[in-house]
Specification:
Strand content: under 5%
Structural class: mainly alpha
Number of strands: 0
Distance between the termini: 47 Å
Mean pLDDT: 89
Largest sheet: none
Radius of gyration: 20 Å
Number of helices: 9
Length: 214
């Protein structure tokens, strides 16, 4: 372990750069997935007939192996090619389902009596959504974002196979030359990033739940 620790210290600059690339891939893709999934999830609560087919399609897409999805995307114009752009598109696709599903579940689980009370107060649908439904559903929505972010951290390591950078570069390099230290130099920081993101979003989720209860 001392040798591994020394190896990590020697490579600290490279590990830091690749970890920042990894975080950038996950951060951009998760933010875009929220920007797409949150409004779409709200729309599904207003159009119940669309909910099952849309969630079903999103679920089926998630069953596609990640390397296969990268392969499907590479030849596509505009969104394809080699590099970070294709990786971000793939990560968005994988992050959409938990965000969609939790947004839909969170809003539909709001107590109908509370919604009726908001209608009785004369709130418009938009005011009801902003002031009642979304605040009450936010812990469930945040849980979906949390799942999406943690899953994206794991999947982003595979994105190195298409030249997107990130900690997967070290893992693939270590596999190619059969160097366990390089594999650990990519895998350990990726696992720590997943734990850090999961813990941070979990804390936000608990704080919001506590504030709402108060």
């Amino acid at each position: 372990m001392t040798g591994v620790g020394g190896f990590f210290w020697e490579r600290r600059g490279e590990i830091t750069v690749l970890a920042l690339q990894h975080l950038a891939l996950v951060g951009v893709s998760t933010a875009l997935a929220v920007a797409i999934g949150l409004p779409l999830g709200i729309l599904l609560t207003r159009r119940p007939r669309l909910a099952r087919p849309v969630l079903g399609v999103a679920g089926v897409v998630q069953t596609i192996p990640s390397l296969a999805l990268f392969g499907f995307l590479i030849p596509l114009p505009l969104i394809g090619g080699i590099g970070a752009r294709t990786a971000i598109v793939a990560l968005i696709v994988y992050a959409l389902l938990p965000i969609l599903r939790n947004t839909h579940a969170g809003i539909t689980s709001v107590d109908p009596a509370i919604v009726e009370a908001a209608v009785g107060l004369g709130m418009t649908p938009g005011e009801r959504l902003r002031s009642v439904e979304l605040p009450l559903a936010l812990p469930v929505v945040l849980a979906g974002v949390r799942i999406a972010a943690v899953v994206s951290i794991g999947l982003a390591t595979i994105a190195a196979a298409i030249g997107a950078g990130g900690l997967g570069v070290l893992i693939y390099r270590g596999i190619a030359i059969v160097d366990n230290r390089l594999i650990l130099a990519g895998a350990v920081p990726a696992a720590l990033l997943a734990l850090l993101v999961d813990g941070t979003l979990g804390l936000v989720e608990r704080r919001w739940s506590a504030w709402r209860s108060a």
